[in-house]
């Protein structure tokens, strides 16, 4: 390629960049001149949680109706600030506020997902899949397993589920939450002073002695053997305790 051809190519490329930049600026300017005529809200209810609804989201966006978005020019609407307001809500995990090509505002929300309810002397709280504590809601009550703790031991603090020890309990709760049978069958979880786990079932008079929150899959497999092969033969009220704590053993009394 000759020198003249190279120069022509560079000039063409430069002109193209300038044109694209000008068009982008023009489009942005036109967008800012548009007014918001409508606010569309989409709340992800993948786990059938209803902790926040359209009305609450609109209150957050408009500061309880003081500053409605409809009718405002786009240049007067701070999208990032609106996102921060929504994400300040306890049950909002992620929020995205963006402007459509028509200039209208669209809001997309993903909710936090409680996987257990912590029973405390002062006030109950939820725990989510990341180990964060969430307040109870007047709007909706999640159907999750309640957890108690031996009072002689340190009560549940906000950081209980955050370290490596606490994460083991979160992993156990996540296993239960994703298994339809155990989620329906386990009525309550208790943690004793040594950190061992006990379950009370929905059906049956026995206590399940699970041990430390480890090897959950193996322990639940043994427990399933107990439910499928022992209880149908011996009866659901035969045993008061079933222990799956120890490797390759099921202890029934």
TrEMBL record:
Domain of life: Bacteria
Keywords recorded for this protein, A-Z: Signal
Signal peptide: 1-24
Protein name in UniProt: Cell division protein FtsQ
Taxonomic lineage of the native organism: Bacteria, Pseudomonadati, Bacteroidota, Cytophagia, Cytophagales
């Amino acid at each position: 390629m000759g020198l003249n051809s190279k120069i022509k190519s560079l000039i063409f490329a430069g002109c193209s960049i300038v044109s694209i930049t000008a068009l982008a600026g023009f489009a942005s300017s036109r967008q800012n001149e548009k007014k918001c005529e409508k606010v569309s809200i989409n709340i992800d209810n993948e786990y059938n949680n209803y902790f926040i609804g359209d009305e609450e989201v609109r209150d957050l966006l408009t500061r309880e109706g003081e500053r409605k978005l409809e009718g405002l020019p786009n240049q007067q609407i701070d999208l990032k600030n609106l996102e921060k307001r929504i994400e300040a809500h306890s049950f909002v995990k992620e929020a995205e506020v963006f402007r459509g090509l028509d200039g209208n505002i669209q809001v997309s929300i993903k909710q936090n997902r409680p996987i257990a309810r912590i029973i405390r002397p002062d006030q109950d709280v939820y725990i989510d899949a990341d180990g964060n504590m969430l307040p109870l809601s007047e709007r909706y009550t999640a159907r999750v397993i309640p957890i108690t703790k031996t009072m002689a031991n340190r009560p549940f603090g906000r950081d209980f589920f955050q370290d490596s020890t606490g994460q083991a309990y979160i992993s156990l709760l996540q296993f239960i939450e994703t298994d339809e049978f155990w989620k329906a069958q386990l009525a309550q979880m208790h943690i004793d002073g040594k950190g061992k786990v006990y379950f009370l079932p929905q059906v049956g008079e026995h206590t399940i002695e699970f041990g430390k929150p480890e090897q959950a899959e193996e322990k639940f497999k043994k427990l399933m053997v107990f439910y499928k092969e022992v209880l149908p033969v011996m009866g659901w009220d035969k045993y008061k305790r079933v222990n799956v704590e120890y490797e390759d053993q099921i202890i029934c009394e």
